[in-house]
Design brief:
Layout (H helix, E strand, L loop, with lengths): L8 H10 L13 H7 L11 H11 L41 H30 L6 E10 L6 H9 L6 E12 L2 E11 L5 H8 L6 E11 L1
Antiparallel strand pairs: 1-3, 1-4, 2-3
Length: about 220
């Protein structure tokens, strides 16, 4: 019983004929019998041995699960046609150091392929990322700007505030809000880019108009 020498063309032809009406070496599901025969083959069968090649490619797809396949791996001579002499000899009892671990080799090859594919995908991602416009973080700020007294020219005060220009700063609507004793404060909206304009900078620039401005407070601060 056996396939003969599966490293030879004759052995592969025996395997091909054996698989002409079978999907697996034993039974109806992949098992350790398939793994035992698979590992005895040093290279994929040629295209003209279509049954053997079909089986080989199918079993190769189980390389990650080979240890969990059912059955117990037996000597290679225990599988195959009954009328073929087992020529594997003692080599079936102990694996020769020179035998090729097809699964191991495939793992290494696929590892290199996976590494190459990962590097290509990372390069594509970085390329797309560099072309994609960055999201600009912005905030909407409502400022309360208080004058010194009720005689302060509020129109001039607002003109001074709006004269402040900076990259990432856009002034919005405004209104005068009574605070008592005839005094009104300027309440003004602005939108800022967080990386470019902060409330400390606004306070420093606004309170610099000391002839009109007593103080500045942040009434509301919302991320956009």
């Amino acid at each position: 019983m056996g396939f003969g020498d599966l490293k030879s063309a004759a052995g592969l032809r025996v395997l091909n004929d054996f698989l002409a009406d079978k999907s697996y070496i034993e039974g109806y599901v992949p098992s350790q019998a398939d793994i035992a025969v698979f590992e005895a083959i040093t290279a994929p069968p040629p295209a003209d041995l279509l049954h053997a090649l079909r089986w080989y490619n199918h079993i190769k797809s189980y390389e990650k699960q080979k240890a969990s396949l059912p059955g117990i791996k037996k000597a290679l001579g225990k599988y195959g046609p009954a009328d073929v002499e087992d020529t594997t000899g003692a080599a079936t009892d102990s694996k020769d150091d020179d035998d090729i671990d097809l699964f191991g080799s495939d793992d290494e090859e696929e590892s290199e392929e996976a590494k190459k594919l990962r590097e290509e995908r990372l390069a594509q991602y970085e390329s797309k990322k560099s072309k994609k416009p960055a999201v600009v973080a912005k905030s909407s700020i409502l400022l309360d700007v208080k004058p010194w007294d009720d005689e302060t020219d509020m129109a001039k005060l607002e003109e001074c505030v709006r004269s402040i220009q900076a990259d990432g700063l856009v002034w919005g609507s405004s209104k005068l809000v009574p605070v008592g004793y005839g005094i009104k404060k300027l309440q003004i909206q602005c939108v800022v880019e967080d990386d470019k304009v902060g409330t400390d900078m606004l306070e420093e620039r606004i309170t610099a108009f000391e002839d009109y401005v007593q103080s500045m407070d942040v009434a509301a601060f919302n991320k956009i």
